[in-house]
Design brief:
This protein is an all-alpha fold. It is built from seven helices and no strands.
């Protein structure tokens, strides 16, 4: 059985992973002296992370996928509770990363190490979070959810508030703008 919602979640994870990898590559380039800081680009990348995963992606996971799975599979409850707790901490984690970037912008090179440490902590946390969802939650969802559950979940994830389509297509536009701004190998920019 194909689960369109899991495909959407996986695609959104890949887009987030691309953004995180891009931020890491930019920081590595700055550290190595190959790149100069592009604060507009880095801010746009953090804006993307804040607006898509934190405001659209996580609420749908909680409201639809996790809620249904909670009803069907007791063994996943501790994992879901941990993931939901992590979702509630998202705003604070983004604020810490944004603050470290703003301090770096304001204070210059002396604040780079703190920004890089905040970025590393954010990236490691998000990788662990996405891996937990994909390797623990997805298989249990495939095993325990019914066709009716999937119909409801898929409808929610395919609804017109998909961040890549319709009126909310500004996320796709932001992603495209970032790819065009970022230097290779992160993006297509110069």
């Amino acid at each position: 059985m194909s689960n369109k919602s899991l495909d959407i979640i996986h695609d959104e994870h890949r887009a987030l992973a691309a953004m995180l990898s891009g931020l890491r590559a930019l920081a590595s380039g700055i550290e190595a002296g190959r790149l100069t800081p592009d604060f507009e680009l880095m801010t746009s990348m953090i804006d993307y992370i804040e607006n898509v995963p934190e405001k659209v992606h996580h609420p749908k996971e909680n409201t639809y996928l996790f809620a249904r799975l909670r009803q069907r599979c007791d063994e996943v409850l501790p994992v879901i509770e941990q993931l939901e707790q992590e979702h509630t901490q998202g705003d604070a984690r983004i604020a810490a990363l944004r603050s470290a970037l703003e301090t770096y912008r304001r204070e210059g090179e002396s604040a780079f190490a703190a920004y890089q440490a905040a970025l590393k902590a954010y990236i490691e946390f998000e990788w662990q979070h996405m891996n937990t969802e994909e390797h623990l939650v997805f298989p249990l969802a495939r095993k325990h959810l019914t066709a009716e559950d999937w119909a409801e979940i898929d409808a929610a994830f395919l609804a017109n508030d998909n961040p890549w389509q319709g009126a909310a297509g500004e996320y796709a536009a932001l992603f495209t703008r970032i790819v065009n701004m970022a230097p290779a190998p992160v993006g297509l920019g110069g």
